[in-house]
Design a protein that fits this description.
It is a single chain. This protein has one domain. It contains five helices and no strands. It has helices at 7-24, 35-60, 87-103, 108-135, 137-145. Helix 1 (7-24) packs parallel to helix 3, helix 1 (7-24) runs antiparallel to helix 4 and helix 2 packs antiparallel against helix 3. It is found in: Endomembrane system. The chain crosses the membrane at residues 7-25, 37-58, 89-118.
């Protein structure tokens, strides 16, 4: 797998781009009643998804290293992984959406969509190729049963 940037760095870069977009493109500002509550709810959901997914990996005693998916010891398919194949990346996406709400610039949703595109193209698809080679039909069946994001 030829990954150039770790997912956490990609997340931080997209967060920086969101901040820069809000700062240098002042059009697109939005506000609505309950925006703060929605922001907190999304952050809480992101925290729960991230914590549960990490806990499941720790319990399975498998690798968390996104740069080397071949180091995985077991295929985790239960718990939250019954609903999304990539809950850790979903957590990052939710945090970016929360940041977009906090910054109040509607164009940040385009950057969040760009994050999904980047992650699919340069992280998730290469990971899936490695996992298909490692786990074969079991992983292919899992991919058919569970969606990539949500």
């Amino acid at each position: 797998m030829k990954l150039k940037l770790p997912p956490l760095l990609v997340f931080l870069l997209f967060g920086l781009f969101m901040y820069l977009l809000k700062t240098y493109l002042p059009v697109g500002y939005f506000d609505f009643f309950g925006r703060d509550y929605l922001l907190y709810a999304i952050c809480l959901l992101a925290f729960l998804i991230g914590a549960i997914s990490l806990l499941q990996f720790f319990r399975a005693k498998t690798s968390l290293d996104p740069l080397h998916p071949s180091k995985t010891r077991v295929l985790v398919t239960g718990g939250i992984y019954k609903y999304t194949r990539n809950p850790m990346y979903l957590c990052l996406l939710l945090l970016l959406l929360a940041l977009g709400l906090y910054l109040g610039n509607a164009f940040n949703t385009l950057l969040a969509a760009g994050f999904v595109y980047y992650m699919n193209t340069f992280q998730i698809i290469p990971e899936e190729e490695v996992l298909v080679k490692k786990y074969g039909k079991a992983y292919q069946k899992y991919c058919v049963m569970v969606r990539r994001w949500f």
